[in-house]
Amino acid sequence: MSTDRAPSAYPPAARLNLVEQIHGHRIADPYRWLEDPADPDTAAWSRAQDELLAEHRAGWSDRAALRERLAQLLAVGAVTAPVWYGEHGFFQRRAAEQDHAALLVIEPDGTERVLLDPNAVDPTGATTLDWYYPSPEGTLLAYALSVGGTEEPLLRVMEVATGTIVDGPIDRMRHTAIAWLPGGEAFYYSRFLAPGTVEGDDPKLHRRVYLHRLGTDPETDSLILGDGSPRGRYFMPRVSRDGRWLTISETQGTDPRNDLWLADLSASPPEAPALRAVQQGVDAMTYPHFHGDLVYLQTNRDAPRWRLCVADPADPAYANWRELIAEDAGAVLDDYEILDGPALESPVLLVATTRHALSELTVHELHTGEEVAKVALPGVGSLGPLTSRRDGGHEAWFSYGDHTTPGTVHRFDARDNTVGLWARPPGAVVVGDVVTEQVTYTSPDGTDVRMFVVAPAGTATGPRPTLLYGYGGFNISLTPWYSPMAIAWAEAGGVWAVANLRGGGEEGEQWHRDGMLARKQNVFDDFHAAADWLVASGTTTPGQLAIMGGSNGGLLVGAALTQRPHAYAAVVCSAPLLDMVRYELFGLGSTWAGEYGTAADPEQLGWLLGYSPYHHVHEGAEYPAVLFTVFDGDSRVDPLHARKLAATLQHATSSTRPVLLRREGDVGHGNRSVSRTLDLYADELAFLTAYTRRA
């Protein structure tokens, strides 16, 4: 049956004659009424969109087969690398039948025990484990659960031996870290202010750092830092493993720079630490780690691809930093662990880097930073974070994966620099004959950009349906990892491409900055150039080329489809930012001004208007098939963006290819159950198949 639908069949949506003058620009906003989900007209329009989607979904003949294959690929489950505190290890594992991973503890005798299972807490799958922090001795666990995708969790403290809850719940705990003091009697954390305490503003944008002692009322916790801080500040406290040093990283929203504070807890009480600046007002990021008598500083200060320095915490001024691992001109320093167990002749650094989005692992002498060995990895792919025993040792753990290999956990032994398998996911899967290639193409300004291409093995017989995926923002790198969607697409004969665009972190901080603020168009140009390469190479044709992205990647594909509608056959735009004039007014939007710019500034409004998808739709243009996917529990990116652009495109397009809106309740921007993920993936792939594989 035909999958096309005439534009006249779209649900009616009133167009307001609303035009504002902002910094000399006349800006129309005909669908502002769709910003309010509680408005009866918005609710009725949304229900009509649900019906429209259901009618089209019924015509996606490949959906059932795709869903079955995706279910098989997701059933492999998952496992994470362990983190070690005292004599206990903590890790997560998801079995095939589980919607969420359970948290397990490894006992001193090596046996494993389920410590916390979100599936048992809430069989509906709506409850997620957002984070957890064991105490230094591994005897207590601070953890946070949230419901319905809101990412607004409650903190509780569990006794590891018995599972007894000994503290909490504490609310207002979004985006925090827990920094335990030795003994497990207290911890530092950040918390946003209570409702009604900030006149005329959202209290969730105002955070403070506190010290909490177990068993006490959190409303009486000692204020440590943040009183009077500007809105949108984030704080990350950490305590050295010996309990002497407290550091607090302070950032403005997602800005790529931080202030760093340090206090000697042996010289001042924990409730009133004498904080002093290690880094303040510097346009760089620096992360501290204490070991022995030194503080190790991973930083991109004067090193866009990052380096590792060391200093005396008693005098950590920048002039006293000593470079230990220099910046590599071709690779980004991602992570490191210090291994110093008694079984080693001398302590070493295990250093993880990425070179053009592919992981490397090397061993270095601790005191000089000299490289002494390269570590053979399980394949050509990506490593997860390195972990080691908090109390020292000669072992480290990490996850490994690539586009077609489920994530496995490996153990590194510094005695002989070998790597061995520690854990596999609990399920099994057979992947078809699919191969991955990394290619390089050139953006319009001459910049070389890399792209992963996942395709069926063997010689291609001609252009094939192709999906181009991208993100390009917030210093986030798209490195290879197990992708059921990519495998299912390639097994069915298609090509799956992932472009490492500017704005990401694949080539370091300068790569990020070359795709933000006034340079945001570079990201879209890189993406268009990736599409051009896929067509010019004979991989696909514009009529077989689809694009997909989520969140900031939703902005990416929104800009791509409005800038070059004839270049793409189909678009999946998930949880997107699309009205860049008003994005700061909703959700966490105001914390992203350092990435995008602010409409309050005349020059920056010009940047935003230059690409804002909602403001670049032209009546009568033939737009590709578009599927917007949004989540009602999303507290980061408001679904209003997708509603407004969906209505705009439905009004403007002259194409018979549909513009559809898929919405879900009780899920949000982040963690979600596997069963809900399966249905989402099946809908997205079936939609893309319908509009790239037709005769």
From TrEMBL:
Top-level taxon of origin: Bacteria
Class of the enzyme per the UniProt entry, highest EC level: hydrolase
Pfam assignment, any one: Peptidase_S9_N
Catalytic activity: Hydrolysis of Pro-|-Xaa >> Ala-|-Xaa in oligopeptides
Molecular function via GO: oligopeptidase activity; serine-type endopeptidase activity
Every Peptidase S9 prolyl oligopeptidase catalytic domain range: 487-692
Enzyme Commission number(s) from the entry: 3.4.21.26
Record's GO cellular component terms: cytosol
UniProt entry tagged with the keyword Calcium: no
Signal peptide extent: none
Peptidase S9A N-terminal domain sequence ranges: 12-422
Keywords: Hydrolase, Protease, Serine protease
GO terms under biological process: proteolysis
PANTHER family xrefs: PROLYL ENDOPEPTIDASE
Family the entry assigns: Belongs to the peptidase S9A family.
Protein name as catalogued: prolyl oligopeptidase
Species classification: Bacteria, Bacillati, Actinomycetota, Actinomycetes, Micromonosporales
